[in-house]
């Protein structure tokens, strides 16, 4: 589906539909490595990852962990997941076929690395039936979701012995990464990739209904101070145009890095080693 526009009148859940359907309309170089927990485990094990489920806030979050105890841990949060079959029908299972954040995590060999799925992703059929679809639609960034990730990060720190975190988020995962960094004191670097950080302006730009049950990073309190932040955007991204991220940065600071020729999916995983090096260099700049 290319260049789709979903009006407020046509689709109350249009914002989610637009994000998830158009994610597959651009250059697609990332192989299909997802679709189930088994698939990502089989893909990630030869790359040094071990899998576990973290019980956090009533959710079961898939975690893939590479490395042992370390003073610092890099945590990658996945995007929103599977495409919607229609404007009115969310997917029966939000597990992504192409987990971009996992591909980014696999390319990061800087130390201990953890990949986190999103609520209701990577579950078996029985567990999925008990997971409310609101958590991959209107409540994706709800307060209880944020609290669950906050608890998951604490579990990861305890198990690895880490004192500090480098936090990465792809697409909707970048929204959660930003909200988490706003309330934690242990995040020394935050990096987002193709993330709609000003949700209200993002839905207005696409002329779709807002995600009223979700927290909006652009509405964080003026007193909130974020850690050093780098926000990557693709100049060809029609889902999260650079202007949306620019609006967030004007309010909350950070550094925007525009990558020519990239869209929402292509080609972050392919070039992540170079982009990650750039993010680390920017972190050191005064």
How would you summarize what this structure contains?
This protein has 286 residues and is of the alpha/beta class. The chain has helices at residues 14-22, 37-44, 100-107, 125-129, 143-160, 172-183, 199-206, 242-252, 272-284; strands spanning 50-56, 59-66, 72-77, 112-116, 164-170, 187-193, 229-234, 255-259.
SSE layout:
Layout: H1 14-22, H2 37-44, E1 50-56, E2 59-66, E3 72-77, H3 100-107, E4 112-116, H4 125-129, H5 143-160, E5 164-170, H6 172-183, E6 187-193, H7 199-206, E7 229-234, H8 242-252, E8 255-259, H9 272-284
Parallel strand pairs: 3-4, 3-5, 5-6, 6-7, 7-8
Antiparallel strand pairs: 1-2, 2-4
Q: Which characteristics define this entry?
A:
single chain; 286 residues; alpha/beta; 32% helix; Rossmann fold; 8-stranded mixed β-sheet; globular; 9 helices
Provide an overview of this structure.
- With 286 residues, the chain is of the alpha/beta class.
- The chain has one domain: Rossmann fold.
- Helices cover 32% and strands 18% of the residues.
- It has helices at 14-22, 37-44, 100-107, 125-129, 143-160, 172-183, 199-206, 242-252, 272-284, and strands at 50-56, 59-66, 72-77, 112-116, 164-170, 187-193, 229-234, 255-259.
- Strands 1-2-4-3-5-6-7-8 form an eight-stranded mixed β-sheet, with helices on both faces.
